[in-house]
Write the structure tokens for this entry.
Amino acid sequence: MAAVTTMLSRSPGRHHLLLMPAVLLVLALCAVAAPFVVGEGLLRLSSEILLIFAMAQMWNLLSGYAGLLSIGHQVFVGAGAYGMFALSIHAGVNPYVAIAFAPFVSGLLAALVAPILFRLRDAYFTIGMWVFSEIVTILVGKSNWLGGQNGLTLSALRDMDPDWISPISFWWAAFAAIGSLVLLAGLMRSRLGLALLAVRDNDVAASSLGIDVWRSRFIAFVISAAGTGLCGAIYFLGPAHILPAAGFDPNWVVIMLFICVVGGLGTIEGPIVGTIVYFGLRQAFATSGNWYLILMGSVAVVVMLVARKGLWGTLHARYGISLIPIRREPPSDKTFGI
Amino acid sequence: MTPLLETSDLQTFYGDFQALFGLDFSIAEGETVAMIGANGAGKSTFLRSIAGLNTQKKGTIRFAGEDITRLRADLISRRGIALVPEGRVMFPSLTVEENLLMGLGTDRAGAWTLKKVYELFPALTSIRHSSSVRISGGQQQMVAIGRALLTNPRLLLCDEISLGLAPKITNDIYACFSEIKASGTAIMLVEQDIVRACQAADRFYCLLEGRISLTGRPADFGIEVISRSYFGTGDHHGLA
Amino acid sequence: MAWLETIVNGLLVGSLYALFGLGAALTFGVAKIVNVAHGEFIVLSGFIGIMLVGIIPIHPLLLVPLVIVIVFAIGFILQMTLLNRVVGKDPIPPMLLTFGLSIVLKNAMVEVFGATPRSINMGGLRFKGMEVFGMTLGVLPVIIFVISVSLFVALHFFLKYTRVGRTLRATGDEAQFVQLFGVNYRRAFGVATALALSMSAAAGMMLAMRSTITPFTGGDRLLIAFEVVIIGGLGSMWGALIGGLILGVTHLVGLRIDPNSGLLYPDIVFFIILTIMPRGISGWRQ
């Protein structure tokens, strides 16, 4: 199996131009069919898994690829969800449709704060991001328009057929998950993706090569925020109720961070592995209360000690395996004949 | 007689990049040896390998009979090898005197004391409480040498002391070497300036692209031959 | 007069914030580690204090040095066994390791100490007030202020005038090159983290004296600690003191304007300061 994937990844990109869409099509078809086959409970869990995965991938885009470590990403989860709720409640937009506008709300928020946050570098940015999310959380909690500390309820959903809520959530979640994969794979094959990697590895050198550092980071930041906001909106469709403490819960970023760290920051496959580990641990130890969280923290510590690049990142570094090839192989690559 | 320091087949790497290709080198107690070579020849890497700052290496380094190839850098300095690093490397949070006092960290007894360093470099006396980054390059170089001497080394490694300094100041600093030699310390000078290196040294090694291209006594070869070896335009290349 | 009292009280609580930040500044300044578990260590120290107060029948203030020593040892072991294995050019691995550690510590504390708010029983001292220039100030906050500022001064003299202090400063400048002077920089990192955590130990003890703590208090304290160091300029000790005092005053003045604002005003001040000085107060000078 490993040998096969190695070969796949090493053969030049043309095969994948066909392979990738085929795989995605199959995934999409499965997603369309799933609600008719799978029971309610499993469907909800699947939605959650897909959403968490997509969020982790968005965090990965910013922190792993653009090198901007954010510990305030929960602000975009909440912003997207609140945006969707507000549109539905105050403008009467159908909630299912309002979801589509959520990314614009969180993306806009990111675009507005970027000029300030981007003045800060490294650890300063990381912590500035956290403080920013705290400010937004407090302000939302004080806003009557957004329901203050009592939050908002998606009352429009009451008039709709309850049987369709879970399937539609699921489809949105599947769209977000597959979309995040396509987006990241596509981005990393683009000029922007290369620019981002260059900026992450050495921003001074990158800018001397004519790369607009600020612009590359800005685009990554806004895309990451928009995607995270979309996931937030979809997530809160199910409960149909949101509180500042839930929407802007720091645990959101803790989960994203855990998944990327354990799986491998800066790899597309890493968050897949990380998501599996996260939900595996959660499902297996959820009944043991805090011990499961202690275990989760320990896993993160151990991974940092023995496999600093994360599980997938370490495998990739050691054996060159990759499922979703995003690196452009040099034209002289001799593996063509394998 | 066993040499003070001896390397055999020393190879040093930076990741996948190899910088040194099997260097055999030796220096005796009290001797002064120059290592000359162009930019990027591997001179600094060689010194850093001996001092333990570069850890990716093969071959052996023996110091006073002991194999120190895998020894941690702080323990190497405690054995009596001091490095005056390229670019001087001040500790910016420390004053001039505090920088010098760092040299006492190896806890080695010997002739060098703070007082003697100030006698060697009187110019430092008046700036002893100044910030170490607000003084001139020549003064920084004196601090770097003084700091290394205070470790009371048996072997002093000096990396490009003349770099970026006015000739007069370089002369002043080189003038001190006779005094340092008199204290019995072996000195290894890395230089790009061939003439100066050959004047100061008993023996020289010429380093070219990570390999030793020529070695001997300066008087036996003359500056011209050494220069050719330095630039890699020796006879076997058919260029001159 | 009421406003002046608010400001003075802000300075008093700000000294504690400064102490939260001091440890973070020290770990960053010497070992270049952003310790995400810093808040948990503050709270853990508080709990150790609460435990010891139950066992050793002397005044809680006298137990502060003991807790400092215990946490010093914990910090040294932490750095030598765990953090030193991931330090290097990339600042992210140590940060992520401490992130995992913070989850472990927080939830382990929930298991051991429970989630109910606890505090150190200070007897009558807790609510004792005194008149100073017509203002009514709490005696305990004043004592805490004095201890905090003394710790800053003590650390200043230690770093400035002792050999270990000099070595720590040099290690913060050039960790690789201190090796040339017989210094094992990993051990220097160990001492730095140990010292940093001892400062948080004192802070945690005094926090548990002034107010209540739960295992979840760490998150907010970490935010304060980070704001303090960043306002001051990462790694700058005096910057941390000024940053802490600014935040303390803003916090109390903000709460006076709007009792439900939480940390909103300190957060906003943090942002304004950083927009003007992206490298913090001490970075501004250079």
